[in-house]
TrEMBL record:
Pfam families reported for this sequence: Phosphonate-bd
Keywords per UniProt: Signal
PANTHER family: ALIPHATIC SULFONATES-BINDING PROTEIN-RELATED, SOLUTE-BINDING PROTEIN FAMILY 3_N-TERMINAL DOMAIN-CONTAINING PROTEIN
Organism: Geomonas propionica
Signal peptide start and end residues: 1-23
Protein name per its UniProtKB record: Phosphate/phosphite/phosphonate ABC transporter substrate-binding protein
Gene3D superfamilies (UniProt xref): Periplasmic binding protein-like II
Length: 275
């Protein structure tokens, strides 16, 4: 019970207090909320420990309640290293001068999922139905909204906190379809994943990108080397294998530029929310 309470308290700080680690002089890794805070903490623990040893400084992992807030915090320079999908990476590169470092080898795809026993087999079957996504600034949600529009469907998307929440709500009959990443769909518990199926998937998109805050530019080579060093460790290889990420790779020429359209939508959404 004590351990559960401790994890809850830590997850609270992970989610709502990115300033806490910074105030304590830690190197702050901000991870976009592609899943729950608890899962993010577990996923990035090996990297956190390795970087702390390699850089000889305290390192903390934080996230945000949703993709919109993550973008706001990143633009406000709250993170030393940001890990987020390609469209927000492009936004941070252009608007906050973050320095792109690397991404994952595995393709990143967005998918539309429905309950296994649903009669929905194509977009047209969703007319008049409820659809779920992550926050408005999430790449999978933006792709999903484009997919609906391309199929001449004017359906508002209801936003929820994480991909596993999308899956659970679909199984509970709270919506007809939902948008998530293929990787997060594949990471669902087998008994939950088995109650869902994919009806559409995107072409490969720029997936999670690691970006270094410009204030660390003088140590960029050392930090980049530490990231690649982690990839060669047993812990790093287990991390890639368990999350089906393949490993790190360098960004292709023009890869982030291909996200300009989606980055512009995030910029527009954030400005609209400020009014």
């Amino acid at each position: 019970m004590k351990n559960a309470v401790s994890l809850f308290v830590f997850a609270f700080f992970l989610l709502f207090a990115p300033w806490y680690a910074s105030a304590q002089g830690a190197f702050v890794i901000g991870v976009a909320p592609h899943t729950s805070a608890r899962v993010i903490l577990e996923m990035y623990q090996p990297l956190r420990l390795y970087l702390s040893r390699s850089l000889n400084m305290p390192v903390e992992v934080v996230t945000a309640p949703d993709f919109d807030e993550f973008a706001r915090r990143a633009l406000a320079q709250k993170y030393d290293l940001a890990v987020t999908t390609g469209h927000q990476a492009r936004l941070l590169q252009n608007d906050a001068k973050y320095l792109p470092q690397l991404t994952y080898q595995a393709d990143f795809k967005a998918v539309a999922i429905v309950p296994q026993n649903s009669r929905v087999t194509k977009a047209a079957d969703l007319k008049g139905q409820k659809v779920l996504g992550l926050s408005a600034a999430s790449l999978v949600t933006l792709w999903g909204e484009h997919w609906l529009a391309q199929n001449h469907l004017d359906i508002p998307v209801k936003y929820v906190s994480a991909s596993d929440s999308v899956a659970q709500l679909l199984v509970a009959g709270e919506a007809a379809a939902g948008f998530t990443s293929l990787a997060n769909f594949q990471k669902l518990r087998p008994e939950l994943q088995g109650q869902l199926r994919i009806i559409a998937e995107s072409a490969p998109l720029a997936g999670r990108v690691y970006l270094l805050n410009q204030r660390w530019a003088t140590r960029e080579k050392a930090i980049n080397a530490a990231l690649w060093g982690f990839a060669e460790t047993a812990e790093g290889k287990r991390y890639f294998d368990s999350n089906k990420l393949g490993g790190y790779r360098r960004l292709h020429s023009g890869e982030l530029e291909g996200m300009d359209r989606y980055a512009a939508e995030v910029r527009r959404l954030l400005k609209k929310a400020e009014k």
